[in-house]
Design goal:
The protein is of the alpha+beta class and about 70 residues long. The chain contains two helices and four strands; from the N terminus they run βαββαβ. Ferredoxins are iron-sulfur proteins that transfer electrons in a wide variety of metabolic reactions.
Length: about 70
């Protein structure tokens, strides 16, 4: 799994940081998404996918790389 974020479209809703706090955080100044781990371990993949689905601005992109843990 490969995760990327586009902070320029982030609206600071914070769903990502609430859903997968080991992978996402929010900038202290403007609340936009901060990616902590662009290649999260398999145990976090479900939460990362959920965070991507919940993002109202579409700032999170989750790419399954074909590794067994991506499913």
């Amino acid at each position: 799994m490969k995760v990327t974020v586009d902070a320029s479209v982030c609206i600071g809703a914070g769903m990502c940081a609430l859903t997968a706090p080991a992978v996402f955080d929010q900038d202290e100044d403007d609340g936009t998404v901060v990616l902590l781990d662009g290649t999260p371990p398999p145990g976090l993949h479900a939460a990362v996918r959920q965070a991507g689905r919940l993002c109202p601005s579409g700032a999170i992109t989750v790419l399954d790389t074909g590794d067994p843990g991506d499913r």
